[in-house]
Structure formats: C-alpha cells, structure tokens
C-alpha cells in the first residue's frame, strides 16, 4: 500500500495560506496609502503611491493574488475620490507591466517603457479631458503621475531585491546577466532619489510660481482700480463743482456759459446737460451738441435709471455703459451730480464720458506689457474695456465662464474666447468689475526651464552610470567568463590569474578551478589516449569488415551485393541528371572446360587474371567493376560519350583473348563474350530491366560464336 506524505501536504497548505496572508497585507497597505496618504503636487491633482504595493505583489506573488491587491488599491480612488480615470490608468499600468514580464522583459525596463510610451500620453489625455488645458500644460501636469509611477515601481523592485535569493517569493523564470543586474541596481540607486527630489521641486516651483503670479495679478488689479477710481473721482468732482456753480449763479443766462466752459475744458466729455427736478432738459453743451437738440423743452430723461438714482439718493451716480448715445455714435457712460438747495433736489448736471477715456491707457499698457490681459465691466457686466488679444467686443455682455470643477491651480480659471486663463478680480467703488488674466503656461515657464536643466543633468548622469556600471560589471564578470573559457579550453591559466585579481575571493576560486581543471585534463588526456587506441582498433576492424562484405574474396573486385548498391546510386544520379551511361555483362567462354581439364585451381587463377585485366583497364573513379557470379563480370560506365564505351569494351575483350595464363607448365588462353546496354535517351527502365537487356545481348554474343561484343542503345 502506497504511503501518503502528509508532511508535504501540510507544507503546501501553509505556503498557500502564507501567500494569501502576504497578499492581504500588501492590499491593506495599498488601500491605506491611497485613502489617507494622498499627495497633491500641482494644485488639487492627487498622486497615489499605493501602486508600489501592487507592483511588489506583481513581482513576488501569483497573478491572481496580485489582482486582489490591485482591487484593494483602486477602491479608495473610485469610492472616496471619484478618480475613476486615474484608477483606470493604474489598472492599465498593472496589466501592461504584467504582459511585458510574461514575455521575459525585465521589470525595470517594462516600468520605463510603460510610463514613457503609454503612461505619459494617457495621463496627459486624462488631464486634458478633465481640465480643458492646452496639451503642453497637460503633459507637464501629467508628469507627476509618471514620476509617482516610477517611484512606486522602483520602491517595489528595491524591496524585491532585499528578499533572499532562495525565497519562494523570488520568481526568476529567466536568470539575468550579472551586468544587467549591476546596471539596474545603479540606475535605481540614482533614479529613485532623483525622481523624489524632482517631484518635490515640481511641487515647490509650481506652488511658488502660482503665489508669485497671484501677487502680480493682484498688484495689477490694485493699480487698475486706483487709476480708474482717480479718473472717475475727477469727473465726479468736476460735475459736483459745476452743480454748485449753477446753484450759486443767480443769473440764469450765465448758466449756459458755465456749462459750455466745463464741457469744452475736458476732452473726455462728449456732452453735458442740465435738467430740472422732473427730468426735463434745460441746457445742453457744448454748442455743437446743443445744436443737435433744438427742442430742449420737449426732452426728458426721467426714465433713465441714473436720473432716478440721483434724485432719490441725492449723490453723484455713475451709470452703466450706454451704447451709441451722445454726439455721433460713440459709446458713453453718464456721470451725474445732483443740484441741491435748501428746498431739496432741483435737478442734476450730467456729463457723457467717452468709454475710451474711462481707463488710464498708460496703466493698461504697462499691465499688458507684463503678459497680463485686462477686462473692465460696469455693474451690468457690459464690457467697458478688454485687451485686444481677448477678442471681445465693447459693451457686449461679459459672461465669466469659470471652470469651478478644475481645482488644478491655486488661482481660479476661466475660459475666454475658447482659451484658458487664470485670473483675479475685484469690485471697484464705482461698482465696476476689473479682471486681470494671464495664461496658465506662465506658471510653468520657469519650471519648464528648470525641469529641462534637471533632465539634462539626469541624462548625463545616466550615461555616466551606464558607462561605470558596464566597466564595473565587466571587471567582475570577466574573471567568471575567463573561468568558463578556461574550462572549455579556450583560455590559458596565466591570463586567468592576471585578470582574477579583482578580489581575494575571485583569486582563490580561480586558483582552485585551475588546479581542479589540471587534474581533470590529465585524467581526460589519459582516458582520451586509451579511447583513441581502442577506437583505432575498432575502426580498423570495421574497415576490414566493410571491405570483406563488399569484395569478392577471389578476385578482389566488388561482389554482386556491392555492385547492386553502388550501381543503383550511380544509375539514380544519371537518371536525375539525364547523363548517359553503359551497362556491360562479360562472360568467360568455355570456362567449364578449364575447370574440367585443368582443375578448379586453374579456373580460379584464370578468374583472377581476367579480373586484373578488367580492373587495370577501368581505373576512372566513376567506373564500377564487379564479379557478378561464377565466370561473369559486370561493368557500369558513366560518361557524356557513351560511343567510346563500346570501343573500350572491345579492347578489354581483345586484351583478354591475347593474354596467356600459365598453370603447371600449361598455357591457357581464353576469350570473353560481352552484352552491352547504352542508355542515352530512355531513363524510364529500372536497373533490373537493364541487366536483363544486357543479358540478352550477352547470349546473342554466345549464339554468334562467342568472343563477340553485342550492344543495344535506348
């Protein structure tokens, strides 16, 4: 009965439970970090570092356990923060790196490939779609995502490297080269602190830049507010003084002169009027304007809101912008001052001020030269002034398209003419709204230059580290490769010792390997010598066996079996290449009489002599000569000139007939009959058919009286 090893089962259960416990721990840490340790680098955009535990689980735990850790890390992003797009990016990172690891790409390489080729474009699109910024700014804002991903991955790989090599959590399906390990270690040692510092500097520089830009916008606002307030106060003071003069001047006829003098004294004033307490127009100035209004007594402005406000509040009032009023078709703002006596409100003085004159152009130019755009609106949000690059029309209603959902910056953001602007605003004492705007890219102007400088230093550092790592790895690996080459017999011991002095341990190992290799080599040489001797004997025996198996023992020619093999190969070659060849059967005439008359020894001697004659006359490498059986010989000639074969065979037959064989003081003279088949055109027949045709020609030679050569050509 087979025993069950309960100890191994318990070990497997414990290991499986331990893996799930580690997975649960990593998932808990990932959840806590993503829920409570969120870092905002640029504005309110969150950076999550819980992915470090996810990537560590991907390196050290089974895939299904790593999926559970991933789920735990993404839960706070979706449930608490509503950052589903960022959660989606972290999920893509997990599966992309898992796929790259599956195809045997190193983790650090996979991490860099993902964030440079996939992560940065995706993060930029997420920022662009959520914040409606230019792509350049979106890429910069997405950069902290990339840096946080790289930092998390490098933290994971550092922890993974700290695990013992024999740990069950060290999953290395393919062992890396030592040079790659050294390079990765050096790169991570440099890149991890560099990326942390760079992330901090991005946060600090963008934060300081926004503070500086906010102060710049606020200062511009204050200067614009001051200048516009001074302008309006001057106009209000002039009207108040005019109202006082008119009230104190008892001569009604002088009122027109006073009004005309004031209107002509200021280029900012398009026109002026004086009304009674009911809003009827009493006087108008300057003269050219008054000429346009011949029936003053019929005109009344009581319906105007600014008239009602002046009458009710008894204070100077600045109206909203009025389109196309006054002399010509100029846009104006009406400023009124009440005429007050002891009896109360007796009318007002109104001045129509050209809109262009309501802003101090020198202040506007100074602000705009600082890359700041300006918008000034009245209390009803009608545009009094806007910078030309904003492409807004005067007196159009200004709608502040503020993107309240985008909390990327410390400054509020609005969209004007389909472009993003950061802005500051205030309400002037006159009830006007003043906006100062600037493009978001100004936040990153100095940061971009600083970032490019840092990247240049980083690239140079990486190149230097790669060179140094390669040199260090080479110094460490070269003795190991030398040992490998020495064991393979490709390196001499002297060179080994010279390059092994990297460390004491390497030198001792090299020395021990050389001594062990020397003993091994001596043993192998002795063993090789013995094997070579035995092999030589076996080869000699095999060669002799092969020769005996293929050679006729009496004549020394090939036997029939050897001929069948060799002739078949030669025939197939000729057949494939359509090369002509000749097959010949030779039979000794009246050979039985020799055996009967002189004995078998004499017959054997005759066979040997005739075989020697045939062999001596067929010396080409392609000639195949064999004893086919008894007193028969067979020849196979391959040549492009088959016509010469017949003459050659006839010369063989003649030589045999002229040869005298001496045996026991007796001279024996023999002849041969030959049957020849020449194959020149028809290569369809098999070898056995060709033998049959040659045999027929041989018997024909016998029938014709022997010592004949008969042939057929096909």
From TrEMBL:
Origin: domain of life: Bacteria
Listed EC numbers: 2.7.7.65
InterPro entries: Diguanylate_Cyclase (IPR050469), GGDEF_dom (IPR000160), Nucleotide_cyclase (IPR029787), Rev_trsase/Diguanyl_cyclase (IPR043128)
GO MF terms, alphabetically ordered: diguanylate cyclase activity
Spans traversing the lipid bilayer: 20-41, 47-70, 77-101, 107-127, 139-163, 183-203, 450-473
Protein name, UniProt field: diguanylate cyclase
Required cofactor names: Mg(2+)
Source organism phylogeny: Bacteria, Pseudomonadati, Pseudomonadota, Gammaproteobacteria, Alteromonadales
Domain GGDEF intervals: 579-714
Keywords: Membrane, Transmembrane, Transmembrane helix
SUPFAM superfamilies: Nucleotide cyclase
Top-level EC class: transferase
SMART domains tied to this protein: GGDEF (SM00267)
Pfam family, one: GGDEF
PANTHER family in the cross-refs: DIGUANYLATE CYCLASE DGCM-RELATED (PTHR45138:SF9), REGULATORY COMPONENTS OF SENSORY TRANSDUCTION SYSTEM (PTHR45138)
Organism field: Glaciecola nitratireducens (strain JCM 12485 / KCTC 12276 / FR1064)
Catalytic function, reaction form: 2 GTP = 3',3'-c-di-GMP + 2 diphosphate
């Amino acid at each position: 009965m087979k025993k069950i090893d309960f100890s191994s089962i318990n070990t497997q259960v414990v290991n499986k439970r331990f893996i799930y416990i580690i997975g649960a721990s990593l998932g808990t840490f990932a959840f806590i970090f993503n829920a409570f340790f969120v870092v905002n680098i640029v504005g309110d955009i969150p950076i999550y570092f819980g992915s470090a535990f996810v990537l560590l689980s991907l390196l050290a735990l089974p895939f299904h356990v790593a999926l559970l850790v991933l789920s735990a890390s993404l839960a706070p992003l979706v449930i608490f923060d509503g950052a589903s797009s960022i959660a989606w990016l972290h999920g893509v990172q997990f599966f992309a790196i898992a796929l790259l690891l599956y195809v045997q790409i190193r983790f650090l390489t996979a991490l860099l490939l993902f964030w440079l080729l996939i992560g940065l474009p995706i993060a930029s699109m997420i920022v662009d779609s959520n914040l409606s910024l230019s792509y350049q700014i979106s890429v910069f804002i997405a950069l902290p995502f990339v840096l946080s991903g790289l930092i998390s991955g490098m933290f994971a790989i550092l922890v993974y490297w700290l695990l013992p090599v024999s740990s069950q959590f060290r999953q290395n399906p393919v062992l890396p080269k030592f040079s790659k390990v050294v390079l990765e270690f050096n790169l991570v040692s440099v890149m991890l602190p560099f990326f942390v510092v760079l992330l901090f500097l991005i946060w600090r520089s963008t934060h300081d830049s926004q503070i500086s830009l906010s102060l710049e916008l606020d200062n511009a606002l204050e200067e614009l507010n001051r200048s516009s307030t001074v302008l309006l106060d001057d106009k209000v003071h002039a009207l108040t003084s005019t109202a006082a003069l008119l009230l104190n001047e008892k001569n009604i006829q002088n009122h027109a002169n006073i009004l005309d003098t004031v209107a002509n004294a200021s280029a900012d004033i398009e026109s002026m009027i004086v009304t009674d307490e009911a809003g009827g127009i009493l006087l108008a100035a300057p003269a050219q304007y008054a000429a346009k209004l011949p029936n003053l007594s019929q005109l009344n402005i009581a319906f105007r809101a600014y008239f009602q406000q002046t009458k009710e509040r008894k204070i100077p009032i600045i109206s909203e912008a009025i389109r196309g009023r006054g002399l010509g078709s100029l846009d104006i703002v009406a400023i009124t001052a009440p005429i007050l006596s002891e009896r109360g409100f007796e009318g007002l003085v109104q001045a129509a001020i050209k809109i262009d004159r309501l802003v101090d152009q020198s202040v506007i130019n100074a602000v705009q030269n600082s890359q700041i755009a300006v918008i000034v609106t009245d209390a009803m949000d009608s545009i009094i002034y806007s910078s030309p690059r904003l492409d807004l029309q005067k007196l159009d209603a200004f709608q502040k398209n503020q993107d309240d959902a985008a909390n990327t910056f410390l400054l509020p953001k609005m969209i004007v003419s389909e472009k993003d602007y950061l802005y500051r605003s205030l309400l002037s004492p006159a009830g006007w709204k003043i906006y100062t705007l600037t493009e978001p890219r100004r936040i990153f102007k100095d940061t971009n230059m600083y970032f490019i400088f840092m990247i240049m230093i980083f690239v140079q550092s990486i190149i230097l580290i790669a060179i140094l790592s390669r040199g260090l790895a080479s110094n460490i690996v070269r003795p190991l490769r030398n040992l490998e080459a020495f064991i393979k017999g490709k390196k001499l011991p002297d060179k080994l010792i010279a390059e092994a002095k990297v460390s004491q341990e390497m030198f001792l190992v090299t020395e021990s390997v050389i001594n062990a290799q020397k003993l091994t080599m001596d043993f192998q040489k002795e063993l090789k010598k013995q094997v070579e001797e035995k092999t030589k004997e076996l080869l000699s025996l095999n060669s002799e066996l092969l020769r005996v198996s293929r050679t006729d023992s009496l004549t020394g020619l090939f036997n029939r079996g050897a001929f069948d093999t060799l002739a078949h190969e030669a025939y197939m070659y000729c057949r494939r290449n359509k090369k002509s060849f000749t097959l010949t059967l030779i039979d000794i005439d009246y050979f039985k009489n020799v055996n009967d008359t002189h004995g078998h020894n004499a017959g054997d001697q005759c066979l040997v002599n005739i075989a020697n004659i045939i062999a001596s006359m067929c010396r080409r490498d392609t000639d195949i000569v064999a004893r086919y059986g008894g007193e028969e010989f067979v020849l196979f000639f391959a040549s492009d000139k088959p016509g010469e074969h017949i003459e050659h065979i006839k010369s063989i037959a003649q030589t045999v007939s002229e040869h005298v064989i001496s045996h026991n003081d007796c001279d024996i003279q023999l002849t041969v009959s030959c049957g020849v088949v020449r194959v020149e055109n028809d290569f369809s027949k098999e070898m056995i058919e060709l033998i049959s045709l040659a045999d027929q020609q041989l018997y024909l030679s016998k029938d014709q009286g022997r010592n004949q050569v008969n042939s057929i050509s096909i």
